[in-house]
Amino acid sequence: MIESKGLDEWLSGIREELKAKTYKPQPVRRVMIPKPGGGYRPLGIPNIRDRVIQTATKLVIEPIFEADLEPNVYGYRPKRSALNAIQEVHERLCQGYTDVVDADLSKYFDTIPHKDLMKCVARRIVDRNILRLIKLWLKAPVQEQDRNGQGKITGGRKNKLGTPQGGVVSPLMANLYMNRFLKHWRISGCSEAFRARIVSYADDFVILSRGRARQSLQWTQDVMEKLGLRLNEDKTVVRDARKEHFDFLGYTFGSVYFKKTGKPYMAASPSKKSIGRLKQKVGGILRPGEKGAWPDVCTRLNALLRGWCTYFCYGTTQIAYRAVERNVYNRVRLFLVKRHKVRSQGIQRFPSEKVFGEIGVMLPRPMKTAARRVP
């Protein structure tokens, strides 16, 4: 479509549709992606035309809502990241907020009530054209496949819940609705009443308390019910971080001991699940049937490692990186042994120094420059 018309003419067509109010979004394509803990997460992917319009709209409205978001909202915001949320959790634990509610919202993106969400939007946006666009995207039909592989259309105007993950404006809408809960927490004085702090990233959040975690959990359950949301009772748990560990955004938090002194300290480190997922991805790149040229394979491997090292750069990382380095070395060595038909384990021909040197594989090390404090 863009190639046949040319970019300028294609954009002009979009502009005319918006001015004439004849624009209607195309059905969102639903794709199911596997979740790390099992099961599948539905993604709703708009087409290029709709993504362009959503992006333009987001550029206009995001600064308006940004001024209203609570400071403990870290997900999908300018100059904030998951690393900032991880740093906040770790610092609160070190300050003594060790009674933790590890919360999990059940199907958050799929259950946000449209009516209440639009009220949140309308408090700051009065332009009817913008409100109409957001409502159209919320009501967009969903194109998916049934069990027989046949295409079908669901959702549409009758749909009253959810903002599809995968849309450009969906994270902003999700932040806006979660902000209702966080603002109510602040206005109700819960930080003082429960001696607690909340750290939120999209639909993931933890409540860090000084001895009143169960009371804060009960309050949260009641408020979420009023908002039309629900905590997953099987996955939402209360932990004592001095005795137990919990995972948040790929990191494990909890008390560990110094080897030399035996004294405990509160640590943040890459979780076992995160290390396991990386190993699985490394194995996928270096699979036995891979026929690509080594420079191309090495480039993909290094891109994976670089991304992992950029994110997992905070806290206690030495043990995790030793495991990752050992796994990457062994995988690369065995891959090259098979490719070059070496009649041995390849330890002498492909030593660690050569793999992470001449052969070009990135040595996994935390990239400390990635972590920065919220201004």
Structure report:
The chain has helices at residues 2-5, 7-20, 48-66, 82-94, 108-111, 114-122, 128-138, 170-187, 190-193, 213-226, 272-285, 294-311, 318-339, 352-355; strands at residues 28-34, 40-45, 99-104, 141-145, 151-155, 196-201, 204-209, 237-240, 246-248, 251-257, 264-270. It has 375 residues and is of the alpha+beta class. Strand 1 and strand 2 (40-45) form a beta hairpin. Helix 6 packs across helix 8 (170-187) and helix 11 runs antiparallel to helix 12 (294-311). The model has no long low-confidence stretch (mean pLDDT 90). The longest helix is centred in the C-terminal third of the chain and has 22 residues, at 318-339. 45% of the residues lie in helices and 17% in strands. The chain has 14 helices and eleven strands.
As laid out across the biggest beta sheet, the strand order is 2-1-4-5
* Gyration radius, rounded: 24 Å
* Computed structural class: alpha+beta
Strand proportion, as a percent range, falls in 15-25%
State the total count of DSSP E strands: 11
Q: What's the pLDDT, averaged over the residues?
A: 90
- Report the uncertain regions: none
Following the backbone from N to C, one meets helices and strands in this order, namely HHEEHHEHHHEEHHEEHEEEEHHHH
Cα end-to-end separation: 43 Å
The shape is globular
Question: Helicity level, as a percent range?
Answer: 40-55%
Number of helices: 14
The biggest beta sheet reads: 4 strands, mixed
